[in-house]
Amino acid sequence: MTALTLSTAGAATLRADALVVGVAKGVKGPVLAPGSEAVDKAFDGKLAAVLATLGATGAEGELTKLPAASGLKAPVVVAVGLGPVPDKEDAYDAEALRRAAGTAARALSGSKKAGFALPAGSVEDAAAVAEGALLGSYAFTAYQGGENKLAPKDAKSKDGGPKQPLAEVALLGGKPRDKAYKAAVERALALVEEINRARDLINTPPNDLYPESFAAVATAAGKEHGVKVQVLDEKALVKGGYGGLLGVGQGSTNGPRLVKLAYTHPKAEKTLALVGKGITYDSGGISLKPAGHNETMKCDMSGAAAVFAAVITAARLGLKVNVTGWLALAENMPSGNATRPGDVLRMYSGKTVEVLNTDAEGRLVLADALTRASEEKPDAIVDVATLTGAMVLALGNRTFGIMANDDAFRTSVHEIAEEVGEASWPMPLPADLRKGMDSPTADMANMGERMGGGLVAGLFLKEFVGEGIAWAHLDIAGPAYHEGAPYGYTPKGGTGSAVRTLVRLAERTADGDLG
């Protein structure tokens, strides 16, 4: 994990491999952002002109490297685009700062230390820069750089193995002795460490991450951070009647698990339950996915990873709220033991479900977990899942959908997501779509109308939420796993989508503002 410090040094005197400054897109060319004053002074006030000569415009995501002027201790200056100049000089959007810091951090991989002289005049700005730089520094290298046993013993790798992330971020322009700044940086560090742990889990190959090993990771983290962890194995699931989890997991040699993580605070007045879909690999089961759709299905546990990270973050931050996480873990595989289309499962709630498509498995494991979470009567439940391709068709690859049984709660979750920089959109739960899940054999089927499939899945889940409990469903199928080139602070692979939203929701709940 990249180190983060609030530096007491100025930009001119900081000894580092590079200095990062912000550049906005002005009407007549690039405009230097606050924080760059000392660097500009070293260039005799001509840094913007030099950048313009090099073709820089200040557009978002743009990055320009140039040799530092003689008055600076760092040898390189990195100018990163912030997008259009804001109406007020110091009113840079927090998400623009996060993305700019992430872009610079990615470009500086392999470096030991970089000073970030981006706008940090407020606690919020400093936190955004810290989050972006730490998120952008992420790299998953656990399976790279192995020893070549066929090479001569004295041979060395030509490229030296995978390039390591930026080792240290020095945040400039903040107030190192100010308690609010210190708290903001400590929060950013804890939050991003857990987001990156979620990313690691998502990126881990399914031969190493399966329900039992995921549960072991959760157990170890719980011991480290004072979170109670309970793991229900196959025997316990059979005894408890968890037909959804058992039905999905019965085709695999790796049995399912239901993991409960419980963080409690002695002064908490509210309880928030988080439920995560944890399909560690999704082949589709007997309803096998077509060729080209299996390769990234290790990411189908991204919801559980997000819930796990959020609970541990809440514990690390000591939030005055009780947060319970439920990880519904299973591997969906085809075999002679697998659930067949046409089978009927008796869920933990007692309802029976006819399985029309074994690739609609996420809703089955979530249903059992939602019912179990409801038994504890929390003030609200939020589930997170890479649930439907239909949601990707509706909202694209970067935006998750939000459904809920309470309009005010849905609005609150949406506002929180936008506040922390996670693109989302509120979606309806049309009652007329429920009829499509009627079954002549069971209480309901796990499939309904094809059109509006993401909403149908939400309606299915709603059936398993306890009476009178506010509930929201986040379908993160689009943003959970990024297959394209990295951008901003978003890496290729697992992203940790929804963790920031869940943590801020827990903070709001702790403050008595559940929504």
Automatic annotation (TrEMBL):
SUPFAM superfamilies: Macro domain-like (SSF52949), Zn-dependent exopeptidases (SSF53187). Binds 2 manganese ions per subunit. Its EC number is 3.4.11.1, 3.4.11.10. It is found in: Cytoplasm. Residues 357-364 form the Cytosol aminopeptidase domain. It catalyses: Release of an N-terminal amino acid, preferentially leucine, but not glutamic or aspartic acids; Release of an N-terminal amino acid, Xaa-|-Yaa-, in which Xaa is preferably Leu, but may be other amino acids including Pro although not Arg or Lys, and Yaa may be Pro. Amino acid amides and methyl esters are also readily hydrolyzed, but rates on arylamides are exceedingly low. One of its GO terms (biological process) is proteolysis. Mn(2+) 1 binds at residues 282, 359, 361. Its main location: cytoplasm. Its cofactor is Mn(2+). GO terms for molecular function: manganese ion binding; metalloaminopeptidase activity. It is an enzyme of class 3 (hydrolase). The active site is at residues 289, 363. Mn(2+) 2 binds at residues 277, 282, 300, 361. It comes from the Bacteria. Keywords: Aminopeptidase, Cytoplasm, Hydrolase, Manganese, Metal-binding, Protease. InterPro entries: Leucine_aapep/pepB, Macro_dom-like, Peptidase_M17_C, Peptidase_M17_leu_NH2_pept, Peptidase_M17_N. The keyword Ion transport does not apply. GO terms for cellular component: cytoplasm. Presumably involved in the processing and regular turnover of intracellular proteins. Catalyzes the removal of unsubstituted N-terminal amino acids from various peptides. HAMAP family: Cytosol_peptidase_M17 (MF_00181). This is Probable cytosol aminopeptidase.
